[in-house]
Amino acid sequence: MSLVVSWIAVHSSAASLYLAADSRISWQDGSHWDHPQKVFLSPQTNEVFAYAGDVIFPTQTLGQLCQIAHTGVLFGQGAAAEDRADIYFNILRSAFASYPEHCLAEPFDVLYAHCSNGQFALFRIEYTGENRPSLSREDIPEESGPIRVLGSGRKL
Q1: How do residues 66-118 score in pLDDT, each as one tens digit?
Q2: 137 vs 1, 83, 86, 119, 153, CA distance in Å?
Q3: Exposed e or buried b for every residue in 94-124, given b needs 16+ CB within 10 A?
Q4: CA 25 to CA 34: how far, in whole Å?
Q5: Of 27, 32, 73, 91, which sees the most CB atoms within 10 A?
Q6: Helix 56-71 × helix 81-97 angle, to 10°
């Protein structure tokens, strides 16, 4: 099972956006491990990434992505959330292009959250298995509640 959830807390306006994930990796043979990192934080850029689905590609690339973001070389300080999401998506797509397709165990989703001047943005990068990742922006509700729930555990 894999699960990642995002939700918004709204008072008079959006006050906080959260990402959370389960802490288990499981394999088809029934084996599991309860200590992986599934949420990645870049506090210097007010960004959070989380994933559900395949394990190796997201864990390796999201950690690197946060380290690169921390250096400040990817975009200017005032870059819009859409521009940031496009840059991250292109980096992940480029990394994915060289990833051995037969090593991908299952599809995966990445959620990317950004906050600038009290404005929240949430994006989804989805890989469904056709070797074509996609990027979409999620709507932020005007009241507190879930935004997106992903992974095999979403129906529990």
Answers
A1: 999 988 899 887 899 999 999 999 999 999 888 888 887 788 899 999 998 88
A2: 25, 12, 11, 14, 22
A3: eebeeeeeeebeeebbbbbbbbbeeebbbbb
A4: 6
A5: 91
A6: 130
